[in-house]
Each structure stands twice: as structure tokens, then as C-alpha cells.
């Protein structure tokens, strides 16, 4: 077995181990939740109504049977694996009998659309500003933007979201503050619908961009600052190469490799949703679905969302691992 | 140069992204024909089967606007006016021993697909649910119904398994009830539990127009044949609200903003601060339950301090009374609702008919009620609490706070218990407690500490109430810590996994004095051991032979018997004596209405219907609203 094959085998083993452990742990953790889906349903069905205690007892038994919650934990665990191998997370317990996969697939496009654009914008902007700030270290405009970005970085998404909501929803009300698209507008590729999507996505995306740009900025500026002092950059400056070329070809390009790794990992995380931002703007994505699942004790739904997130992150890591030997020969040699 | 070019490019992109103008609020529907109501996010947006536990369909307008059943009680009403025969032509007719109920149905009512509603639908509703355990009303039907007969197309006879004078309440809406199923639709379905009922056929005046698959909104449209419904038959003119929009308006802050932007006509609930902001900045376009402070609408539910009677020392009534007398209710009212609380000393909410049936007639009894502290007799009731709270809020609200004591009682409640620390001390000593420094010690010599469970941010007013009570008990030598249970709050109440909690254990019809709505489940037959789930209500697991006797007596009298009120009073007196839980206040909801497009909302002065978005009685408000002639032109 040559070096690359051995490396590949190790990475694939790690990949499947991560999936197995991650999903198994999620299964166990959700089962430890004190929130019982049967009790949640009983509560929903009896809330605000006259409740005969004998009828409630009967209802509880019927729902436990209906939801398929009988059997030992081990039996449920085996049953769970046999289903998720074929991509079936079973019925949602809080939206019974709708399959969990249907709920996730309905929410996923919203989340992926929002997070993808926010991630790409914050990655591009953060890296660009970071690289510029690392190279043009005395530029006042870049210093100012750096200070602004870093000031926003530790602010929780909830606060940024609420401030934007007040700013553009109330003080200067030009943007919708709730939902994913205009009401009563059928989804289509029409100009009106796409415009509506952009308008409704602007504030959530801006929240994510403002909150996310800082980390890319800081790491890129640090990388660029180090590269600026490398011999090849100093030599290029002495040789009279234009600053634009040095920045783009000598500094930014070299600093980009680790940032691409970070981007790939973040892309995997997109499938987990942006819980807080979706909550603030009532955006119909996976994050909101996950919160609903947790509150209602719907562990089928929670398992479905987290499993997809685990798989997405693990796949992203695997792809990076497999691509690294092609970029860096030292990895190929083991 | 490079930086300048990049900055210019960024500005150009940003300028393109910022919209010049916002879009119309609802595509294709004139705003001045639509009533916009706060609804939650529907996780299962495509599910409209009200009879299966699919979730999502009970709070998106489906049960509020399209379902119907036999009778309705207006939770805000009093007397006969609170009762409505809906699909039924008359009140329920029982035989002498309450083993049979006969119902005459109205004629001329049609489903929205043109099929006539008949007694067969009612029989089908019961039979189908009994045959399918897991359906919403399967269990109570299974427990009660022996058989259903249909002697003719407008008569239904229910034969019951055992006497039940309250069987009709299964078909009587207060918040919801057993809705009638469309037989002609469901009989073609193989599994009624797996059927989404999308689109739903409507038995009431509105029918589904469109909905968001992501669950953020559902729009209901007035039926062309609205007159052929139970609610339409009672109207002389067509309802002016042509569309009803249930929309998820987001978090409480967003709801305030949306209403002030006139994008949300009816709010379910917001924090006091949001309410006061609306009252300050949008008073000209807003209506409230009360015409001014305290604004809030009191639900017929009763937030209370619940003691777990199966955990020592809370089984001891002297301890419970001592804890009650340590509370300064004025501080609780100010801290939780900033004064806008409707206080309750009796174990029934001070709303609807309870005011005239219980609170007013029992004032003399309450005032003269004496409590034995072990060393003396005290009269703990303070009928002037409303005036005291009024004095505290008057500096902020000025003329909005009247001086008439009768008006103040409607706003702030009839009275509560005086904070009496000396009496509390005597009661604890009577129970064998001793004081070590400022720390109360239990009879076994260990410190008396309490964990007070609250739900948390989901109901901020009650979390605040719990926190203030915990502070007061701690100051008096009982170290009390707040236990924020979050989403597990309800789950922990059921099996008794708490010492003391802020929660609900009493809900009433609101518009009827019968207390069986919650009291039936208080019978000791239904008490579970600690760790097993207690049926809803009686979460404090209170048992008392006198209570059982009252419940059994109530079962034997008819719903409308005058004895119902007397039995209710006997229960309330027993609850004062025993203090099984400490009633705090009605659950006040800050639910302002935007009057930009619609007027004629119900209020304390004219409580003709429920006003909460999820209360099915809301439909009686919707058909009564009038378009505001000053509304902006249709968009």
C-alpha cells in the first residue's frame, strides 16, 4: 500500500468513525431529554379544554403506541440505524405523521440559501479587508474598517439582529422584518418573487455577515502580516514589482489556503442552520425547525437535523483531507 | 488606488441591494379587506386534519375559522348571553339519570364544498374517533359513549356508559372542543390519522384561501355562502372582514414594531414594556381591553404558586398559609406586570361570570374570614389592595387611574391577603419550625429552603412574579432559589418534579359558573404517586375528603342548576381555608388591537367575544368588526 492509499484508508476510517460516534451520541443525548413527545402531544390536545383524567390516561397510551415509542432503548437504537442508512428519520413526533425528511427538505433551501450567501459574502469581504489591512498596514480607512469589524465580532447575533430590526423595521422601515417572502406570493422564478426573497433575506443575511466577517478578517490579517515579512515579498518590493501585484499574487494568494479550509468547514456547518438569526427574523429555516423540535420533545426531528449537520461537516472535512495531498506533497508521503 | 476602486465597487453593490421601496404587504389582497392576526410558526404547515395529533392546525385559523361544533360559551360573557347554540338548535337534553343526551340540530347548514351537514356527521365524528385511538377526542368518547343513534337527519342521541351531567361540554367550545368531522370526506379515507385534510372543507364562515408551506402564514377567505353556516345564520349583513390572515409575526419586539407599522391588527401577547410603548406612541390607532391602564385582557386562567403536597413540608396547610402571608402582593403586581395585574384571592380567575357569581357575593365572607395562627385569630383579607396598587401606578399613569373603588376592582382585582410577617412566624412555629438567626429551620432541624420553579423567558411576567416571591421568602429567612425549567417546565409539573412552582392549576369556562371544567380532575381518585404523571390540573396533588364530596355533588346536578354556584362557593371557601396553592392573579395578556383598518373590537365594556387569536370564540369578533372609514386606500 503506497503512502496515499494508506492516508486515504485512514481518513475514510476516521470519517465513518466520526459519523458513527456523532450520530450515536446524538441519539443518546436526545433520548435523555426530559421533554416527552407524548406528554407534549397530550398537553397540546388537552390544553385549554375540560380534561377527564381517565381519558387523558387512555390518550397517553394510544399516542405512545401510535408514535412507536415502545421497546427498549437498544431496540430503538437498532431500529434508528436501520432507518437512517436509507435516509429515513421516521415520522416527526410533533407533526405526526409527516416524515422528518419532508420537514427538513422544506426548511433546508431557506437555510442553505441564506447561509450560503451570507457565508460567501462574509468570507470574501473578511478576507479581502483582512488581506488589505495586513498588507497596507498604515492605511487609515483600513484601520477604521478593521476596528469596526473587530468591534462587531464579539457582539452576539441576537443583539445585531435586534438592532438591525429596529433600524430598518421601525426607525427607517424599508425592509421586511419577518418571514422568508411576501405573503400570498406563490414561489416561482418571477421577478416579484425573487425580489421578495432578496428583500426578506437582506436583514438576516446582513446580521450573519456583520457577525461573521470579523473572524475571517482577523485570521486573514494575521496571515497576511506574516507573509508581508517573508523574503519573497521583501525581494519583490526591492525588485520594483507593483504593490497591486505583490498584494494579489504574493500575499493574498499565499494566505488564502488556510482560509479555504475554514470556508469548507463552514460550508458543512450551513446545514445546521443559523438558529438565533432565524429566530429573530422568523426565517423558516432548519435552525427554527431545530428549536421547535427541541421545545416539543420531537427527538426524531432533532436527530434528523443534527444527523444531516454531522454528515455535512464530516463530508466537508473528508473532502479537504482528500484534497490536501494534491496540494501539499508532505501530506501524501504520510 | 486599488482600495478606492474596491470601495467604489462595494458601494455600487450595496446600492443595488438596497430596495427603493418595500413591497405591498400581502400580494393580491387589499389590506383594507384583510384582518391580520398573530399566529405562531406552523411546523407542519400542510396539515389541516384537526382530529389527528398532527400539530400545526390548531393555531393557524383552522379551528378558529373553519371548524364548528354544537355549542359555544363566550369566555368573557355572563349569564344566558354567554351561551350560543351553534350547530345545535337547543341546549342539550338529558334524561333523568344523565345517561342519555339528545341533541336537535339546526337545518340549512352546509359544508364549504356544498354538502349538507346532518346528524350523520355527528355520529360519524364519534364512531370514527372511538375506532381510532390516537385521534383527538377518541379517549373521552371511548370513556363516555356507549352508542350514538340518529333517529332522523337532525337529531342525535348519545347513549352514555355511565351518568355524566357534563357530557355536552365535550362539544362546547371555550377554547376548542370536539369539532364535527365531514363524513363525506373522511369516509373515503383509509386512515384518518394519516390524512392531512388539505385543503380542509369548512363548516364555518371562512375557508382556506392559501397558505405558506414554510408555515409563516395562512389566509382564510369569507365563504360565498357564509349564510349557510351556524355563525352566518345569526348575521343580518355580510361580515366586512373578507380575508383573515394568520401570520407569524416573530418575537415580541417584532410584534410591537409590526403593529405600529400597521402590519398586525391583533396581537396575542407582548411584554408590558411593549404594551406601554404602543400606548405611548400609537394610542390614536390602538384599542385595548381596558380603555387605558392596565390595558391587558385577563384570560380565564389563574397563575398561582403551586405547592407539591407530596413533598414535605408543603402538605402542611400552616406552612402554605405562612408562605402566602409572607408575600407582599403589591410588589409582585408591580414587578411582574408593572402594576397591570388583576389580583385574585379566590381559586377561580376574576374574569367573566366569576365576578358576579363568586367575587362580588363572597367579599363579606372573605373580609370576615379568620385564620388561626396558633396563638391568635387573624382576618388576613385586605379588600383595599386595588386602591393600594392604584396609588403606586398613579404617578406614572395619572388620570388614567380612576379613584372609584368599584372601577379599581375591575382593573386590579377585588383584594388579596395582607402581608403579615408576624402571623407567618406564628404559623411556622405552630408547624414546629424554629428560627436560627434569620434562617427558618424545619422541625427536623434542617434549614427550610425552597426551589421555586418557573418556566422562564417564554412567560416573562410570571418568571418575574416568581423571582419577586423568591426574594420575599428569602428575606424572611427561607432561602429560595429560582429554578428556570424552560421547555421542561410542563414536563416536570406532571410527574411532580418540583417543590414549589409558578403555574396554572385552575382554568374555567369564563362565561359559566360551573367549575367542573377543572374541578373534576381534582378528585382523589385521580391522584398519582410522586413520579407518575398527574392528569392535567391538580398539579399540586391536593386531596381532601371534603373536596371529593363537593365534586361528587357537582356531578349530580345539571350544568345550569342554581346549585352549581353554591357548590362553587363551597369549593372556593375550602380552598381559602386550606390554601392548597396561592392564587395570584388572572393571566393578563397584553393584546392591543390596531384600529387603522378595523374597529369594534371587544373590550371590558363590551365583552361580546373572546379576543385572543387562538381562542375559537374569536370568530364572533371577526364577523362583528367594522371597516374603519378612515383607513388608507386599498393597495
Shape of chain A: globular
Straight-line distance between termini of chain A: 12 Å
Overall mean pLDDT of chain A: 83
Termini of chain B, distance in Å? 48 Å
Treating each run of at least 4 consecutive H or I residues as one helix, how many helices of chain A?
14
CATH class of one domain in chain B: Alpha Beta
Describe this structure in words.
The complex is a heterodimer of chains A (334) and B (635). Chain A has 14 helices and no strands. In chain A, helix 5 runs antiparallel to helix 10. Chain A starts with a helix and ends with a helix. Among the domains of chain B are: 119 residues, Dipeptide-binding Protein, domain 1 (Alpha-Beta Complex); 224 residues, Dipeptide-binding Protein, Domain 3 (Dipeptide-binding Protein, domain 3, Roll). In chain B, the strands form ten sheets. Chain B has a five-stranded mixed β-sheet. In chain B, helix 16 links the parallel strand 21 and strand 22. In chain B, helix 10 runs parallel beside helix 13 and helix 10 packs antiparallel against helix 16. The longest helix of chain B has 16 residues. The interface between A and B is large, with 86 and 88 residues. Chain A: One of its GO terms (cellular component) is plasma membrane. Chain A: It comes from Devosia soli.
What is the gist of this entry?
The complex is a heterodimer of chains A (334) and B (635). By secondary structure, chain A is mainly α.
SSE inventory with pairings:
The complex is a heterodimer of chains A (334) and B (635).
Chain A: H1 3-32, H2 37-46, H3 53-66, H4 73-84, H5 100-135, H6 140-152, H7 157-171, H8 191-228, H9 231-238, H10 243-269, H11 275-280, H12 286-295, H13 299-327, H14 329-332
Helix pairs in contact in A: 1-13, 2-3, 5-6, 5-8, 5-10, 5-13, 6-8, 7-8, 8-10, 9-10, 10-13, 12-13
Chain B: H1 2-17, E1 34-39, H2 62-66, E2 71-73, E3 83-85, E4 93-94, E5 100-104, H3 119-131, H4 138-144, E6 145-152, E7 155-160, E8 172-173, H5 183-186, E9 206-211, E10 217-222, H6 230-233, E11 243-248, H7 252-260, H8 272-281, E12 286-287, E13 297-299, E14 301-307, H9 317-325, H10 329-337, H11 354-359, H12 363-368, E15 371-372, E16 377-378, E17 381-382, H13 385-397, H14 405-412, E18 416-417, H15 421-430, E19 434-436, E20 439-441, E21 449-454, H16 460-475, E22 479-484, H17 489-493, E23 500-507, H18 516-519, H19 545-556, H20 563-578, E24 581-583, E25 587-589, E26 593-594, E27 598-599, H21 618-622, E28 626-627
Parallel strand pairs in B: 1-11, 2-8, 21-22, 21-23
Antiparallel strand pairs in B: 2-3, 4-5, 5-7, 6-7, 9-10, 10-11, 12-26, 13-25, 14-23, 14-24, 15-16, 17-18, 19-20, 27-28
Helix pairs in contact in B: 3-4, 7-8, 9-15, 10-13, 10-16, 13-14, 19-20
Amino acid at each position: 500500500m503506497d503512502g496515499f492509499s494508506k492516508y486515504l484508508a485512514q481518513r475514510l476510517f476516521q470519517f465513518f468513525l466520526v459519523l458513527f460516534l456523532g450520530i450515536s451520541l446524538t441519539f443518546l443525548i436526545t433520548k435523555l431529554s426530559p421533554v416527552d413527545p407524548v406528554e407534549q402531544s397530550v398537553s397540546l390536545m388537552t390544553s385549554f379544554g375540560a380534561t377527564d383524567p381517565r381519558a387523558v390516561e387512555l390518550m397517553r397510551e394510544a399516542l405512545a403506541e401510535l408514535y412507536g415509542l415502545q421497546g427498549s432503548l437498544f431496540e430503538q437504537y437498532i431500529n434508528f440505524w436501520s432507518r437512517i442508512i436509507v435516509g429515513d428519520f421516521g415520522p416527526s413526533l410533533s407533526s405526526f405523521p409527516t416524515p422528518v425528511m419532508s420537514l427538513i427538505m422544506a426548511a433546508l433551501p431557506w437555510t442553505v440559501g441564506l447561509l450560503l450567501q451570507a457565508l460567501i459574502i462574509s468570507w470574501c469581504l473578511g478576507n479581502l479587508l483582512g488581506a488589505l489591512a495586513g498588507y497596507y498596514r498604515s492605511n487609515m480607512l483600513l484601520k477604521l474598517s478593521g476596528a469596526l469589524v473587530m468591534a462587531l465580532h464579539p457582539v452576539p447575533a441576537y443583539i445585531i439582529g435586534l438592532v438591525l430590526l429596529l433600524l430598518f423595521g421601525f426607525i427607517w422601515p424599508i425592509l421586511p422584518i419577518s418571514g422568508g417572502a411576501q405573503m400570498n406570493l406563490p414561489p416561482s422564478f418571477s421577478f416579484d418573487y425573487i425580489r421578495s426573497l432578496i428583500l426578506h433575506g437582506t436583514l438576516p443575511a446582513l446580521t450573519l455577515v456583520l457577525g461573521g466577517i470579523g473572524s475571517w478578517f482577523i485570521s486573514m490579517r494575521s496571515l497576511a502580516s506574516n507573509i508581508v515579512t517573508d523574503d519573497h515579498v521583501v525581494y519583490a518590493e526591492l525588485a520594483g514589482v507593483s504593490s497591486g501585484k505583490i498584494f494579489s499574487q504574493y500575499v493574498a494568494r499565499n494566505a488564502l489556503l488556510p482560509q479555504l479550509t475554514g470556508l469548507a468547514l463552514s460550508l458543512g456547518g450551513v446545514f445546521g442552520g443559523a438558529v438565533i438569526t432565524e429566530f429573530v427574523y422568523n426565517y423558516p429555516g432548519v435552525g427554527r425547525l431545530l428549536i421547535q423540535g427541541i421545545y416539543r420533545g420531537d427527538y426524531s426531528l432533532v436527530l434528523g437535523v443534527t444527523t444531516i449537520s454531522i454528515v455535512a461537516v464530516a463530508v466537508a472535512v473528508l473532502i479537504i483531507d482528500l484534497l490536501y495531498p494534491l496540494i501539499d506533497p508532505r501530506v501524501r508521503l504520510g | 488606488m486599488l482600495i478606492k476602486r474596491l470601495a467604489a465597487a462595494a458601494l455600487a453593490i450595496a446600492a443595488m441591494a438596497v430596495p427603493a421601496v418595500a413591497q405591498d404587504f400581502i400580494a393580491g389582497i387589499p389590506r383594507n379587506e384583510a384582518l391580520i392576526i398573530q399566529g405562531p410558526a406552523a411546523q407542519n404547515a400542510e396539515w389541516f386534519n384537526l382530529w389527528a395529533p398532527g400539530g400545526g392546525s390548531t393555531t393557524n385559523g383552522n379551528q378558529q375559522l373553519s371548524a364548528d361544533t354544537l355549542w359555544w360559551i363566550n369566555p368573557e360573557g355572563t349569564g344566558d348571553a354567554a351561551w350560543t347554540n351553534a350547530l345545535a338548535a337547543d341546549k342539550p337534553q338529558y334524561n333523568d339519570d344523565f345517561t342519555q343526551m339528545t341533541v336537535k340540530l339546526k337545518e340549512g347548514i352546509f359544508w364549504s364544498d356544498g354538502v349538507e351537514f346532518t346528524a350523520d356527521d355527528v355520529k360519524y365524528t364519534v364512531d370514527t374517533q372511538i375506532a381510532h385511538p390516537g385521534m383527538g377526542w377518541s379517549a373521552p368518547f371511548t370513556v363516555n359513549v356507549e352508542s350514538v343513534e340518529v333517529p332522523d337527519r337532525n337529531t342525535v342521541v348519545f347513549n352514555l356508559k355511565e351518568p355524566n351531567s357534563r357530557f355536552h361540554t365535550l362539544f362546547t367550545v371555550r377554547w376548542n372542543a370536539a369539532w364535527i368531522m365531514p363524513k363525506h370526506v373522511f369516509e373515503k379515507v383509509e386512515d384518518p390519522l394519516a390524512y392531512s385534510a388539505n385543503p380542509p372543507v369548512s363548516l364555518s364562515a371562512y375557508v382556506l384561501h392559501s397558505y405558506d408551506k414554510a408555515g409563516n402564514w395562512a389566509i382564510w377567505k369569507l365563504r360565498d355562502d357564509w349564510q349557510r353556516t351556524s355563525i352566518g345564520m345569526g348575521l343580518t349583513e355580510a361580515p366586512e372582514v373578507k380575508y383573515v390572515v394568520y401570520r407569524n409575526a416573530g418575537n415580541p419586539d417584532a410584534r410591537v414594531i409590526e403593529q405600529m407599522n400597521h402590519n398586525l391588527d391583533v396581537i396575542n401577547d407582548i411584554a408590558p414594556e411593549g404594551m406601554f410603548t404602543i400606548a405611548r406612541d400609537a394610542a390614536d390607532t390602538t384599542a385595548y381591553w381596558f380603555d387605558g391602564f392596565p390595558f391587558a385582557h385577563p384570560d380565564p386562567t389563574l397563575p398561582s404558586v403551586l405547592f407539591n403536597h407530596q413533598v414535605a413540608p408543603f402538605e402542611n396547610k400552616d406552612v402554605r398559609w405562612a408562605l402566602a402571608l409572607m408575600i407582599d402582593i403589591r410588589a409582585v403586581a408591580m414587578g411582574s406586570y408593572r402594576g397591570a395585574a388583576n389580583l385574585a384571592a379566590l381559586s377561580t380567575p376574576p374574569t367573566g361570570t366569576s365576578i358576579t357569581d363568586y367575587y362580588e357575593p363572597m367579599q363579606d365572607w372573605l373580609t370576615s374570614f379568620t385564620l388561626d395562627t396558633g396563638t391568635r385569630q387573624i382576618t388576613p383579607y385586605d379588600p383595599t389592595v386595588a386602591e393600594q396598587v392604584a396609588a403606586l401606578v398613579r404617578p406614572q399613569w395619572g388620570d388614567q387611574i380612576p379613584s372609584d373603588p368599584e372601577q379599581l376592582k375591575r382593573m386590579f382585582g377585588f383584594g388579596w391577603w395582607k402581608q403579615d410577617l408576624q402571623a407567618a412566624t406564628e404559623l411556622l412555629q405552630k408547624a414546629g419550625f424554629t428560627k436560627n438567626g434569620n434562617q427558618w429551620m424545619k422541625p427536623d432541624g434542617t434549614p427550610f429552603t425552597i426551589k421555586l420553579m418557573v418556566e422562564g423567558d417564554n412567560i416573562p411576567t410570571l418568571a418575574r412574579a416568581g423571582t419577586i416571591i423568591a426574594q420575599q421568602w428569602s428575606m424572611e429567612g427561607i432561602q429560595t432559589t429560582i429554578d428556570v425549567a424552560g421547555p421542561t417546565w410542563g414536563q416536570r409539573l406532571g410527574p411532580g418534579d418540583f417543590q414549589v412552582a409558578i403555574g396554572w392549576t385552575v382554568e374555567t369556562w369564563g362565561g359559566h359558573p360551573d367549575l367542573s371544567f377543572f374541578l373534576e380532575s381534582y378528585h382523589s381518585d385521580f391522584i398519582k404517586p410522586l413520579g407518575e404523571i398527574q392528569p392535567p390540573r391538580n398539579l399540586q396533588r391536593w386531596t381532601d375528603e371534603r373536596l371529593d364530596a363537593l365534586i361528587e355533588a357537582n356531578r349530580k346536578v345539571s350544568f345550569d342548576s342554581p346549585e352549581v354556584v353554591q357548590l362553587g362557593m363551597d369549593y372556593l371557601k375550602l380552598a381559602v381555608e386550606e390554601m392548597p396553592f396561592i392564587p395570584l392573579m388572572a393571566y393578563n395578556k397584553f393584546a392591543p388591537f390596531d384600529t387603522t383598518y378595523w374597529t369594534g373590537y371587544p373590550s371590558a365594556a363590551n365583552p361580546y367575544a373572546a379576543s385572543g387569536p387562538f381562542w375559537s370564540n374569536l370568530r364572533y369578533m371577526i364577523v362583528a368588526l367594522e371597516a374603519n372609514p378612515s383607513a388608507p386606500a386599498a393597495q
